[in-house]
Specification:
The chain has about 500 residues and is an alpha+beta fold. The protein is built from 23 helices and eleven strands.
C-alpha cells in the first residue's frame, strides 16, 4: 500500500468492490447520495463509482459533512499504518494527537512538542489528511464518546468531559453531527445487557489487520514481565499504566479476530491515551500483508514467514521505562534483568491498588530513579554509570523518547551516552521509539539464527545482507528470533 492512497480512485474502487479489510484505515469512502462514509470492507452493497469520493481520514469525512456508517463503524477501524512507519512531521503529529496532546495542551502544545509553528502543522496536516489538528482530535473525541456511551452506564455529562469535550453542548452537537443520533439514542441501540459491566472497568475490542501471530508478541511480554508491574494471568497480559491524569491497569487477551482489552482507570479522561498506548504496545496498526510480502521475497526468510505469518514487534506503553529496562538487561539473562527491575519497582515505584491482585506498582519514573543513591544498585560500576546517566538525561528532558521523537536523532543521542552501544540503542529504537526498520546485528540470538540459516553472522556482513529487508528489519528480527526455543517465542499456557 502507499502514501496518499485515497488519491488513486481506481484502486480505491477495486478495494471497496472486493470489501477488502486490509485497506481499512488506509482510506475512507464517502457516498455522495447518502451523506455517509464507510470503511472499504463495509458489508452493504457498494455504491456506484461516480457516487464515491475518497478521504484519507475519518476527520476529513466528518469535516466534509459526512456521517459515520452505522453498519461498518468506520471510526473504529484500525489506525493507518503510516503513522507508525514514518518519521516525518505529519506522522509524528498524528502519534501525538493519538496520545491526547491536543486535548490536553491544544494546538500550541502540539506545535511546541514538534518544534514547528501551529500554522506549519495545520498546513501540512490539511494537505495530507484533509483535516487540521483540531478536527483530527475532535474525531478522536467522538470515537471515545461513542465507546463510553455504548459500553458504560455513565451519565452523559460525565462521558462528555471524560471524552475531552469542553462542554455538554459541544458533546451533544458533535455526536449528532458525526453519528446522526443523539447520545441517548446511540445508547438505546445497544442491547441492554451489553452496556453493563463491572463499575470502573471498561471492556472493549481492539481491531487489527489480519493475520496476527500472538505467540512472540505475548510470549515476549510475559517472559520479560517485571513482577508488580506486569503479569500473565488466565490467558491475559496485565500491566499497570502511568497516564496523564492518573494510573490504570490494562488486561489484554488475544482473540482470533481482535484483542480483548479490559481497562481499569483512575480517571476516565485517560481512556483515549490508554487505548492508544495498548495499541502501540501490541503494534496493532501494522500492515502485516506489506511486511510479510516484502520479507517473503528473501528465500531464507520466506519459510519462516509462511510458517507463522503476521508477527508483530512487541513494543511498550512507556518509552522511558523500556530504556531503563534495556540498560538493566545489558549482558545479563532475562531472569536477571527482571530481578534488577523488580528491586527498583519495590524500592522506588508508585504503589497502586489492583482490584484483582497481583499488580502492585507503577514502574519508577525517571525523576524518582534520578534521585536514588547509585551505591544501592547491585550492578557493575560501569553499568551503574550508564544507568544513572540515562535516568538523569530522561529526567531533565535532554533525551526525549516520546512518540514525537526523531528516530535517527534520538538514536545518535543515545549512542553518545556512556555504556550505550549499538545493541542498546537499536533495541530502544525498535521497541520504545517504534522504528520499524531498527535492526540488531550484534544480538546473540540474531547471530545464532543467522548462522543456523546460512546467513552472514558478523554484524557488518549481516547488516549488508539485511538491506533487502528494509524498511521492515524490525519485523525480520522477530522472525529470526522465532527460530530459537526461548520462552519469548511462545504464547504462555
Amino acid at each position: 500500500m502507499q502514501k496518499g492512497m485515497h488519491t488513486d480512485t481506481e484502486r480505491c474502487v477495486r478495494a471497496v468492490r472486493s470489501k477488502d479489510a486490509r485497506f481499512d484505515g488506509w482510506f475512507f469512502t464517502a457516498v455522495l447520495t447518502t451523506g455517509i462514509y464507510c470503511r472499504p470492507s463495509c458489508p452493504v452493497v457498494p455504491p456506484k463509482p461516480e457516487n464515491m469520493v475518497f478521504h484519507p481520514s475519518a476527520a476529513a469525512c466528518q469535516q466534509a459533512g459526512f456521517r459515520a456508517c452505522k453498519r461498518c463503524r468506520p471510526d473504529t477501524s484500525p489506525g493507518s499504518p503510516e503513522w507508525n512507519e514514518r518519521a516525518d512531521l505529519v506522522a509524528r503529529a498524528m502519534r501525538l494527537i493519538a496520545d491526547g496532546v491536543v486535548d490536553r495542551d491544544g494546538v500550541p502544545g502540539l506545535a511546541a512538542r514538534l518544534g514547528y509553528s501551529p500554522r506549519q502543522i495545520e498546513r501540512q496536516l490539511l494537505a495530507e489528511l484533509g483535516a487540521g489538528p483540531l478536527a483530527l482530535a475532535r474525531a478522536q473525541r467522538a470515537q471515545t464518546a461513542r465507546l463510553l456511551i455504548e459500553t458504560t452506564r455513565l451519565p452523559m455529562a460525565e462521558i462528555a468531559f471524560a471524552a475531552g469535550f469542553s462542554s455538554i453542548r459541544t458533546f451533544n452537537d458533535t455526536v449528532r453531527e458525526v453519528y446522526a443520533l443523539a447520545p441517548t439514542d446511540l445508547r438505546a441501540r445497544v442491547p441492554r445487557d451489553a452496556s453493563h459491566g463491572t463499575p470502573g472497568v471498561l471492556s472493549l475490542r481492539l481491531p487489527f489487520r489480519a493475520p496476527l501471530n500472538p505467540d512472540n508478541l505475548f510470549g515476549h511480554l510475559a517472559a520479560t514481565a517485571v513482577p508488580g508491574v506486569e503479569e500473565w494471568r488466565d490467558g491475559s497480559y496485565r500491566r499497570t499504566l502511568r497516564l496523564p491524569y492518573g494510573h490504570g491497569i490494562a488486561a489484554l487477551t488475544p482473540r482470533p479476530d481482535h484483542i480483548a482489552c479490559r481497562l481499569t482507570l483512575g480517571d476516565l479522561r485517560d481512556l483515549t491515551v490508554a487505548i492508544s498506548r495498548c495499541r502501540r504496545l501490541l503494534d496493532l496498526d501494522a500492515d502485516p500483508v506489506a511486511v510479510d510480502g516484502l520479507l517473503r521475497t528473501d528465500p531464507v526468510l520466506a519459510p519462516l514467514v509462511d510458517k507463522a505469518p503476521g508477527r508483530r514487534v512487541p513494543r511498550t506503553v512507556d518509552a522511558d521505562e523500556f530504556a531503563v529496562r534495556a540498560v538493566l538487561g545489558q549482558q545479563v539473562s532475562t531472569a536477571a534483568a527482571r530481578t534488577h527491575a523488580a528491586r527498583l519497582v519495590t524500592a522506588h515505584g508508585t504503589p497502586v491498588d489492583d482490584p484483582e491482585g497481583g499488580l502492585t506498582h507503577l514502574f519508577p519514573s525517571p525523576e524518582a530513579l534520578a534521585a536514588l543513591d547509585p551505591e544501592t544498585l547491585a550492578m557493575p560500576r560501569t553499568r551503574r554509570t550508564t544507568f544513572t546517566t540515562l535516568v538523569a538525561h530522561l529526567a531533565d528532558g535532554s533525551v526525549n523518547l516520546g512518540v514525537e521523537s526523531d528516530w535517527a536523532e534520538t538514536r545518535a543521542l543515545l549512542l553518545a551516552l556512556p555504556g550505550f552501544g549499538p545493541w542498546t540503542a537499536d533495541v530502544i529504537a525498535m521497541r520504545a521509539l517504534g522504528d520499524p526498520d531498527a535492526f540488531l546485528p550484534t544480538d546473540l540470538g540474531i547471530r545464532r539464527a543467522a548462522r543456523d540459516l546460512g546467513l552472514p553472522s558478523t554484524p557488518a556482513a549481516l547488516t549488508a545482507r539485511a538491506a533487502a529487508w528494509r524498511p521492515w528489519r524490525a519485523y525480520a528480527v522477530q522472525y529470526l528470533w522465532a527460530t530459537d526455543s526461548h520462552p519469548i517465542n511462545f504464547l504462555p499456557v
